[in-house]
């Protein structure tokens, strides 16, 4: 998971080492974090590091204060930088300073003494501003664990789609890595624009997106995958007089149809289908809860069960087996 797009970072700009360390400790469990000690260094980081997706900044700093940093961000010729959410790390600034910062383009304010739940809650509120960007690998897997656990507990559907941009290497060779990464960012925005609010997108490997779709069965996942791939095939990217046609491969997996005990296994199955070109699982012959029950039975060790347990399983399944064999004959 080494892609620039995948490794989204939060930039923390503050001349206090204590404040930077505090926010780093809170954020690092969920995001990659970059620290800078003044506004000028923060601005240079924004220009050179395309992985930065959000900025936390103090106002009173040497070289370039927070007001000037926000102004540069909002007036940047780079749309990526211009659209970044900016949260002001608030100390003892008066209301006029806050008003000035908001007028300059600050999105939110947070106290330097804020605890972890408050910091993460603020980020959650602002994530919709950067929704087109892919989730960090950590967030993708964390969200996947929640969705998989819910689907297994309540017997609901969950599908995973893997999308690999096959022309990424060609773009990097023709135009350079920076342009290829920009291509991925554009594709990420396209994927996000076609998703529902409850879906999650992130990068599972270089140039390979993963979409988690709760409440979605295999037929719906396949339709979405085909529709997305068709849009990409019809899109063209030009740079320096050269035109690049986007090529993409997809693979889908669905809980209840595919044998999987974790979100990681479901993701792996989608990636395997992407590699083989099979795209999607065969239509389910059995209801999801029946399929899961059979999977449990298939994994049982009859020798290790003990005689009493084995007899009880046979006794309870015998009536069904007799009726099923009679119907099949």
Structural summary, described in words:
The protein is an alpha/beta fold. It has three domains: 9-130, Response regulator (Rossmann fold), CATH 3.40.50; 137-276, Reverse transcriptase/Diguanylate cyclase domain (Alpha-Beta Plaits), CATH 3.30.70.270; 289-328, no CATH class. It contains 14 helices and eleven strands. It has helices spanning 17-27, 39-48, 66-74, 79-82, 95-104, 116-126, 137-154, 168-175, 177-194, 218-234, 263-276, 288-299, 302-305, 307-328; strands at residues 9-13, 32-36, 52-57, 86-90, 108-111, 158-165, 200-205, 208-214, 236-239, 242-245, 248-254. The strands form three sheets. The protein has a five-stranded parallel beta sheet with strand order 2-1-3-4-5, sandwiched between helices. Strand 4, helix 5 (95-104) and strand 5 (108-111) form a beta-alpha-beta unit. Helix 2 (39-48) runs parallel beside helix 3 (66-74) and helix 8 (168-175) runs antiparallel to helix 9 (177-194). It is globular and about 85 Å long. The N and C termini lie far apart (52 Å). Mean pLDDT is 80; it is low at 1-6 and 128-133.
Mean pLDDT: 80
What is the number of E strands?
A: 11
- Domains, number: 3
Within CATH, the superfamily of the largest domain carries the name: Reverse transcriptase/Diguanylate cyclase domain
Radius of gyration: 25 Å
In helices, the fraction of residues equals: 40-55%
Structural class: alpha/beta
Please mark out the parts with pLDDT under 50 across 5 or more consecutive residues, or reply none. Answer: 1-6, 128-133
Largest sheet: 5 strands, parallel
Strand order of the largest sheet: 2-1-3-4-5
> What is the CATH topology descriptor of the largest domain?
Alpha-Beta Plaits
The N- to C-terminal Cα distance equals 52 Å
CATH class of the largest domain: Alpha Beta
User: Secondary-structure element sequence?
Assistant: EHEHEHHEHEHHEHHEEHEEEHHHH
Architecture of the largest domain, CATH level 2?
2-Layer Sandwich
Gross geometry: globular
Please give the count of helices.
Answer: 14
Determine the strand fraction and express it as a percent band: 15-25%
């Amino acid at each position: 998971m080494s892609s620039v797009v995948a490794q989204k970072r939060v930039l923390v700009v503050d001349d206090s080492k204590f404040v930077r360390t505090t926010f780093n400790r809170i954020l690092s469990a969920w995001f990659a974090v970059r620290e800078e000690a003044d506004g000028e260094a923060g601005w240079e980081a924004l220009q050179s590091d395309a992985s930065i997706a959000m900025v936390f900044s103090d106002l009173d700093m040497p070289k370039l204060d927070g007001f000037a940093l926000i102004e540069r961000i909002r007036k940047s010729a780079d749309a990526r930088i211009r659209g970044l959410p900016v949260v002001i790390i608030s100390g003892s600034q008066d209301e006029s300073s806050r008003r000035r910062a908001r007028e300059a383009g600050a999105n939110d304010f947070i106290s330097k003494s804020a605890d972890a739940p408050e910091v993460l809650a603020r980020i959650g509120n602002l994530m919709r501003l950067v929704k087109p960007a892919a989730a960090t690998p950590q967030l993708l897997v964390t969200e996947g664990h929640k969705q998989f656990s819910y689907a297994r507990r309540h017997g609901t559907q969950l599908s995973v789609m893997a999308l690999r941009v096959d022309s990424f290497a060609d773009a990097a060779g023709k135009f350079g890595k920076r342009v290829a990464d920009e291509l991925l960012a554009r594709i990420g925005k396209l994927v996000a624009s076609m998703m529902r609010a409850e879906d999650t997108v992130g990068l599972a490997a270089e140039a390979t997106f993963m979409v988690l779709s709760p409440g979605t069965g295999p037929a719906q996942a396949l339709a979405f995958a085909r529709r997305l791939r068709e849009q990409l095939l019809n899109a063209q990217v030009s740079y320096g007089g050269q035109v690049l046609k986007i090529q993409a491969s997809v693979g889908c997996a669905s809980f209840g149809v595919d044998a999987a005990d974790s979100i990681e296994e479901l993701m792996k199955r989608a990636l395997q289908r992407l590699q083989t070109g099979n795209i999607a699982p065969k239509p389910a012959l059995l209801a999801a809860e029946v399929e899961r029950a059979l999977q449990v039975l298939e994994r049982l060790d009859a020798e290790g069960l003990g005689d009493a347990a084995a007899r009880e399983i046979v006794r309870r399944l015998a009536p069904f087996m007799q009726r099923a064999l009679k119907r099949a004959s």
